[in-house]
Amino acid sequence: xxxxxxxxxxxxxxxxxxxxxxxxxxxxxxxxxxxxxxxxxxxxxxxxxxxxxxxxxxxxxxxxxxxxxxxxxxxxxxxxxxxxxxxxxxxxxxxxxxxxxxxxxxxxxxxxxxxxxxxxxxxxxxxxxxxxxxxxxxxxxxxxxxxxxxxxxxxxxxxxxxxxxxxxxxxxxxxxxxxxxxxxxxxxxxxxxxx
Length: 195
Known about the structure:
Shape: elongated
Helix content: 25-40%
Strand content: 25-35%
């Protein structure tokens, strides 16, 4: 009998278990917004690195192939979001019949929840030669704008020190969190800015 009373005294009561479960629920609810902010920041970093990497690939392709190369930014819909969400590098090939564009990379989609903000990205409209529509597999005809690299690694004449950057932000907006990729018009090298 003493052994049985001793086991009862060591157990938790139902009220104690409910209080602990309520505290764990409150802590979990408080942590969700912080985890969402971390995930948005991670997606933004990844998107900025993707854009910077593709710009570097375009510059290196132009120099190594001694060809003009375009970086095309696509205005498309991806799931529930739409805007400037994709980019691709294109090589310009010259032949006796004129010039033609050849894809030098696959279409890169920005991570979910991130887009290139047109109002803070003057590089989108800096080179008026690189704009139009392109038929993309499984996406149909989409509008694009972009910029060019010359065979020496410099950017096209339309790009200057005042319109040489792209700014990425969360699609939800209203946040001070952004990622800016700036491209030197003379050397084609990228610099990133993060708050």
